[in-house]
Amino acid sequence: MDVLANDIVQRFYxxxxxxLRISALMLSAPIFSLRALNVRLRILLAGALTWMVFxxxxxxxxxxxxxxxxxxxxxxxxxxxxxGLTLQVCTAxxxxxxxxxxxxxxxxxxxxxDPNLGNVPVLAQFMVILSTLIFISLGGHTLxxxxxxxxxxxxxxxxxxxxxxxxxHFVIWSSMMFLGAVLLALPVMIMMLFVNLGLGVxxxxxxxxxxxxxxLPAMMIAGFLVLMxxxxxxxxxxxxxxxxxxNEVRAQMGLG
Length: 256
Known about the structure:
Distance between the termini: 48 Å
Low-confidence stretches: none
Oligomer: single chain
Structural class: mainly alpha
Number of helices: 8
Largest sheet: 2 strands, antiparallel
Strand order of the largest sheet: 1-2
Helix content: over 70%
Shape: elongated
Order of helices and strands: HHHEEHHHHH
């Protein structure tokens, strides 16, 4: 019985290390981090993925309560969080683009409480839903799983520590949040600028024209029309942002 108990403990120690990395990714990656996917499903999914990857590698025996083991715990959690947060930058770009569009069209007052994002404008929620559909159509959920599986080859347990340069590179990459938002919202914002100029000329020509009763409905109607025309090109830009996110994760994990 003692031999069996020791064997179970050793197996648990071996199973713990890939489970930590995969669980941290499940907590931070898009789709998997949604509150609709409750904790039980995340644990079940992380356990299933760990069970699949477990026979593919030789795992080192590290005591988790030793200093080396504690360092390795933080290292594995950090690797998983870094992969997930890198892709969350793309989601933040969609939210920021939606907020810029709402301010340009005049819908910034129309907001809703999202359990995942908080209080965001309706257009920001629309952009997140659109980006999620494109993410799934690209097979992003399978790409995430493939990346975490491949990361055990380039950053093996007990041999590859996550350095401060990786986090510094992540901070630099976070500027994609603003670049992606500008690329998505700029066409609509430029067109709305011309609409604003036209309304300004009309108000100057007819001072009695009430800008609030005429200008705001005109801005909304023009904004929706411009948004409908720009949606196909915005879909291509959203796809580009996601591909940049996956390439960044591959570069951080040393996958080329």
